[in-house]
What we know:
Number of helices: 15
Strand order of the largest sheet: 1-3-2-5-6-4
Mean pLDDT: 96
Distance between the termini: 38 Å
Helix content: 25-40%
Strand content: 15-25%
Low-confidence stretches: none
Amino acid sequence: xxxxxALNRATLDRQLLLARSTLPVVEAVEHLAGLQAQTPHxxxxxxxxxxxxxxxxxxxxLLLDRQLVRIALMRSTIHLVSxxxxxxxxxxxxxxxxxxxxxxxxxxxxxxxxxxxxxxAAARPLLKEKPRTSKELGALLAEHGRTAGGWGDxxxxxxxxxxxxxxxxxxxxxxxxxxxxxxxxHTTAEEWLGRPLAADSSLEEMVLRYLAAFGPAxxxxxxxxxxxxxxxxxxxxxxxxxxxxTDGDGRELFDVPDAPRPDPDIPAPPRFLYDFDNLLLSHAxxxxxxxxxxxxQNYATRRPLPGIVLLDGFTAGDWQLERxxxxxxxxxxxxxxxASRDKDALAEEGERLLDFAAADAATRDIRFES
Length: 370
């Protein structure tokens, strides 16, 4: 039986949050099974707190060099993954993207009955010609539908959304590049990476990769992270190859046998998580990290989301980085009054965060708020 604290330390270790890693960036992203990255830049912090001596510009160059890409994958959300992982994970995510498309409140009804093969056939040469925004792609698809006599009466935005969900579309730079901005423009992963999608993607391999990055975990945890359903039979096929545990509530947990499971009493340093950090989103039962004080904040109703503070491995506050001219201020709001040693440790970690995310600021400050 694994206690909450044992699960916490195991997951922190897999997520490179017990100690900063010296892994190269691409290898780290693969080790983490990707990072949720629907915001243009906040996910950079996710690598900054996990890796030793890494700079945002170094990570950005890997996007420009097409070694990393941002694409809709798990949970139909934009993730940062390596080029290799993009090509084999994207086919596995198709059922998730189909479900999102046809149940979408805005676009689901307008695309009912649409011949998706025809849509994809029309969209592919448009995206091969050059990356296009959703507005541009939707207008061109609507025009094609009118001239071809097929679906010209469908809303252009819904046609573009259907293409996004039925095709492997990557967001291309400069969108997502540190210190730069640009429209959300897409092209196909095959065109961008010069290689086809994998034809032999394995759900078993996906489950093993998840467990290596987030385990020990239940079947429901894997399903929560991936957005896929009916994975119990996949896990059962893997059972002879897995270590099996239970948690304090009797739930069955699975793990890669040789994965690290540190002593529950090992110290966990303070960390600043970005707004959509996978540590907070990748389990059905998030009690291995989430506290009652976190739940009381009702973050689901707050926009923009703040970053989250970890103390002793558990959620203990939130943070925001404010910029005004040449001044960067890190605002830290703990849920409870901090002990002096915790405040000092957070301030030290905050300096590292400012050095990573606001290196260009002439003045940097840390302010604790109640």
